[in-house]
Design a protein that fits this description.
With 358 residues, this protein is an alpha+beta fold. Helices cover 30% and strands 22% of the residues. The structure holds 1,6-di-O-phosphono-beta-D-fructofuranose and magnesium ion (2 copies). Keywords: Carbohydrate metabolism, Cytoplasm, Hydrolase, Magnesium, Metal-binding.
Length: 358
């Protein structure tokens, strides 16, 4: 893990609970910190339970079976989507959480009226991969609950998050999160089912030779994306002056973790398909927490034009284009949106910037 620094303040192997307890005890805003620490702790417990179901695979029944109900976003829910959502709701009820927003819930749920926090979750990210035994994950975002109520708690800039991160259920189970000052990386030890610290102060490599995008959408892409990818494909003969490698897992958490480990850039842009005018991924429980954790590791996260963490949701399941990863490459992609590059492949749709500039 060349991109991950050696543990700084905390010793490797420290348990998640010890880490969170030490963090909660170390500052003046003690009540809020205690609530956040408890919240991240119970999310990790729910993650360990979800991991157990995933580990049993088909022995658990068909986790990937469509159960006939479309979620709020119109996607068919799978058995594991629902199981994960239920485990997380149950866990968060035991924490100081007032409001819960989820990909799998039509509306915001009130869990503990008067609670200190509002939590947005993608309970199971990468659902299409479940039966193929490919990594999936859970993504979470924690805001302070607003006195203004449920929607005000979530409809605010992502930079106001108190914590954010993800769990990836892969060959091993990893938990990566930020509490607002750096990024910690834990791994679930199957021997005693305890999340143990692997590294604190994790950084994403600033430059990269790897990009991730669903290239089957090439014909639908807007000019800046098409030009950027054409330039990558041109390799050492193109304007980047170096060869690139491409990956696409179709699991945002798995792509994020790969970028944490060895650098890279991820792109799910807006495109010209109907319904993809704002890309595919959701601002509140996918883009916000991923952007928070990525920025805290020195990376960048934009929608093409704007920093993700400056965007403000106005609907619960709002989508956003999402481009994140190694800072140098994200800045370069931003320049494809803002300078003359895109004029090399003009498009009438891109001319209407409002379409892509929410
Ligand atoms: O199938 P596509 O269009 O390549 O989309 C893949 C993307 O969709 C997602 O699966 C959406 O997440 P969900 O599985 O939570 O709906 C991401 O994990 C992934 O990056
Ligand atoms: Mg998802
Ligand atoms: Mg999901």
């Amino acid at each position: 893990m060349t991109a991950i620094q050696a543990p700084a303040a905390h010793a490797g192997g420290e348990s998640l609970i010890a880490y969170l307890t030490a963090w909660a005890a170390s500052a003046p805003d003690a009540a809020e910190r205690a609530a956040v620490a408890k919240c991240v702790g119970v999310l990790a417990e729910a993650g360990a339970a979800i991991a157990e179901a995933i580990l049993r695979g088909p022995l658990q029944g068909s986790l990937g079976a469509e159960i006939g109900v479309a979620n709020a976003d119109g996607d068919k829910q799978r058995a594991l989507d629902v199981l994960a959502d239920q485990k997380i709701v149950t866990a968060l009820k035991s924490a100081d959480v007032a409001y819960y927003a989820s990909e799998e819930e039509e509306a915001i749920l009130t869990l503990n009226a008067g609670g200190a926090l509002a939590v947005a979750v993608d309970p199971l990210d990468g659902s299409s991969n479940i039966d193929a035994n490919i990594s999936v994950g859970t993504i979470f975002s924690v805001f302070p609950a607003s006195a203004g109520g449920a929607t005000e708690s979530f409809f605010r800039p992502g930079r106001e998050q108190l914590a954010g991160g993800y769990i990836v259920y892969g060959p091993h189970v990893a938990l990566v999160f930020t509490l607002g000052a750096g990024v910690a990386h834990f791994v679930l030890d199957p021997a005693d089912k305890v999340f143990k610290l692997v590294a604190d102060g994790v950084k994403i490599a600033p430059s990269t030779r790897e990009y991730a995008i669903n290239a089957s959408n090439y014909r639908h892409w807007i000019p800046p994306i098409r030009t950027f990818v054409d330039d990558c494909v041109a390799g050492a003969q193109g304007p980047h002056g170096k060869d690139f490698n491409m990956r696409w897992v179709a699991s945002l958490v798995a792509e994020t973790h790969r970028i944490f480990v060895r650098g890279g850039v991820f792109l799910y842009p807006a495109d010209e398909r109907k319904g993809y005018e704002q890309g595919r991924l959701r601002l509140l429980y996918e883009a916000n927490p991923i952007a928070f954790v990525v920025e805290q590791a020195g990376g960048g996260a934009i929608d093409g034009f704007n920093r993700i963490l400056d965007k403000q949701a106005s609907t619960l399941h709002q989508r956003t284009p999402l481009i994140f990863g190694s800072a140098e490459k994200v800045n370069r992609i931003n320049s494809y949106y803002t300078d003359v590059h895109f004029e090399r492949t003009p498009s009438p749709l891109f001319g209407q910037r409002g379409l892509f500039h929410a």
